[in-house]
Amino acid sequence: MILVVPSRSRSRLPLLLVLLLLFAVVGGVSFLGWRQSVAAPTVTLSRPGALGAKSTLPVVVEAVRGGLTRVEVRLVQGERVVALVKQEGALGPRVQLPVTLEGAAREIKEGAATLEVWARDDFWRPLRPSDRALVAAPITVDLTPPRVEILAATRYVSPGGVTLVAFRAPDAARVEVTVGPRAFPSFAWGPPERQARVALVGLPHDLVPGTPLAVTATDEAGNTATRGVPAELKPRPFPRDTITVSETLLQTKVPELLPQRPADQPLIEGFLVINRDQRRQAEEEKRRIGGQTGDAPLWQGAFVQPRNTKVFSNFAEARTYVYQGKTVDTQLHLGFDLASTRQSPVPAANTGKVVFAGPLTIYGNTVVVDHGLGLQTLYAHLSTLDVKVGDSVEKGQPLGRTGTTGLAIGDHLHFEVLVSGVSVTPLEWWDAKWIRDRIARPLQDAGLPAMGGVAAAPAPAADDTPARPARRRAR
Ligand SMILES: [Zn+2]
Fold first, then answer.
1. Least enclosed by CB within 10 Å: which of 163, 330, 428, 469?
2. Can you list the domains of the chain with their CATH numbers?
3. Measured in angstroms, how far is the CA atom of residue 161 from the centroid of ligand 1?
4. What's the pTM value of the predicted model, to 2 decimals?
5. Nearest 5°: CA angle at 465, between 464 and 471?
6. Contact (Cβ atoms closer than 8 angstroms) between residue 215 and residue 150
7. What is the pLDDT of residue 47?
8. Burial class (CB in 10 A: 0-12, 13-18, 19+), 376
9. Which H or E run includes 273?
């Protein structure tokens, strides 16, 4: 039997084979071409500009396909090549390297250099890519810490008081004046060629003797230098007081300050939420407002206490709250309570600019006036506000009237002086002599211009006792 194969099929078979072969060749070639075309690993390098002895430069290397097998960062200075970091093995698709000069600092000299990043992946390509730096970035090696020179500072300081620090840190990109963990900003002061800076530092009322007061400067390359500020700490006593939480106080203040509280919550619990949480919120808000300060002093001369006012509560008074014979809370009173007649006008303690005007939790209707360089004054429990944020105010200008808004029992003004949001005693700033001896004198010693129109007394200060708390005259 003869099998008849149709002629069309007979002629098609080789054509199919040729086509298949062609597809295979084209496919293979394009596959190899694709393999070859897959790019080398990518490098992300946040350009540092300058690299210091201790600074860290994050370098991220990512394989486009496959995994990384070798990553190396080199520093090239002329003929000298120093490997800063090298990793080999199955490193995965992404490697983050903290590049530092630590360990290599002795082999490196200061000045211009090139930072090279080399990397290889395990992705197969028909032709192995030539080894070359994937990134070569120019940088400056800077191993010298910035200079910090303390020019002068307030010699005698007290807890809850202020110290002025004058210094120079000409090579610094960033400076901080710190007392313990708390940092304060500094501001350029005096002729530009002196490159002097000043900082007002608010010392906490509970400052522990021996807490370091220091200026820390950091340069572009991350080198840091710290200098201690000499100061003599004089103790200052703070009063204590007991406040009886009455039913009248609970019934008038808790619904006002905590309108959304659960109906079955006892009033005393609501009071404790107000006294703790709202007080803490107000402290946080004061810190935030403290950052909104002018870089030049706006104040002129001593700060003023409103006329004919009686002090009935002092700064940093430790208050024990007693309810039905039991201690229910302890809090710190961070200002002065000043009372006169109801709805008395509240004068601005000094020239400045209004940076806050509105309700502030337990403080009620509040005005904060900025006097520059972090120095601010706060006026609380007001019944009316006569100023708004952004207003410039003169010393003595009425800001509003006293009242009982917030956690106030009777009509009074709660007055605070703040330095970068830290409450300090107003006694120092009410005292022209203190300003002369503790602010004007260090400026004069540093050879810097006077501030706030206050010049130091001709002779060195003989009196080194800190300002005393005002005597309690009424309760
Ligand atoms: Zn008060």
1. 330
2. 42-142 (2.60.40.2550), 149-233 (2.60.40.10), 240-424 (2.70.70.10)
3. 18
4. 0.80
5. 155
6. yes
7. 66
8. buried
9. helix 267-273
Ligand 1 center to residue 363 CA distance, Å? 8
Distance from residue 1's CA to the centre of ligand 1 (Å): 120
Please write the tens of the pLDDT for every residue from 105-138.
Answer: 778 888 999 999 999 999 888 888 788 889 899 9
pLDDT value at position 473? 43
Q: What is the DSSP string of 17-73?
A: HHHHHHHHHHHHHHHHHHHHHSPPPEEEE---SEEESS-EEEEEEE-SSS-EEEEEE
The C-alpha atoms of residue 203 and residue 213 are separated, in whole angstroms, by 9
CA contacts within 13 A on the Cβ side of 90: 0
Query: Of the given ranges (160-174, 307-321, 375-389, 421-435), which has the lowest mean pLDDT?
Result: 307-321
CA of 414 to the centre of ligand 1 (A): 4
Q: Which residue has the tokens 């009033």?
A: 267
**DSSP per-residue codes, 380-403:** EEESEE---TT-EE-TT-EEEE-B
How far does residue 315's CA lie from ligand 1's centre (Å)? 9
Residue 313 Cα to ligand 1 middle (Å): 7
